[in-house]
């Protein structure tokens, strides 16, 4: 990963607010390609971030965000399955709409500070990003490292963890 690509990733990792809105401001059309929405096992770090036991049943939603036809972000959202009867019940019916539609319009939703992540080849996170990217784009994750960020949103005392991984080279005018 070149220095310029790494610095572009760092800007994305620190960018506040809605990623969907940032992508829309840059490229106009943002489309959500839903890959997974099911109860699945948690990946490393998710249980701790959510404050739940590692075996807790959680709903996992994975999507790829596209600007035009170009896939640019792989995102994974995780919430305790029990929250689908409570504060995050709208998550079940989100479909192809961006998660931002739930997170940034409700004043009762709070967010933890963004955490930056760098997951190398061989890690569980790189493996999962690679699987998702192959399903969405028909090719492997295009780098040896997954540069990403995560934060936890809370509504009604119930957490929802959002992880967003940026395709290498996403930079330039996008960060205006």
From TrEMBL:
Keyword Membrane among UniProt keywords: no
Catalytic activity field: chorismate = 4-hydroxybenzoate + pyruvate
UniProt keyword Cytoplasm present: yes
InterPro entries per UniProt: Chorismate--pyruvate_lyase (IPR007440), Chorismate_lyase_/UTRA_dom_sf (IPR028978)
EC number: 4.1.3.40
Family in the record: Belongs to the UbiC family.
Organism of this sequence: Aquincola agrisoli
Gene transcribed to yield this protein: ubiC
GO molecular function: chorismate lyase activity
Pfam families: Chor_lyase
Gene3D superfamilies according to UniProt: Chorismate lyase-like
Name of the molecule in the record: Probable chorismate pyruvate-lyase
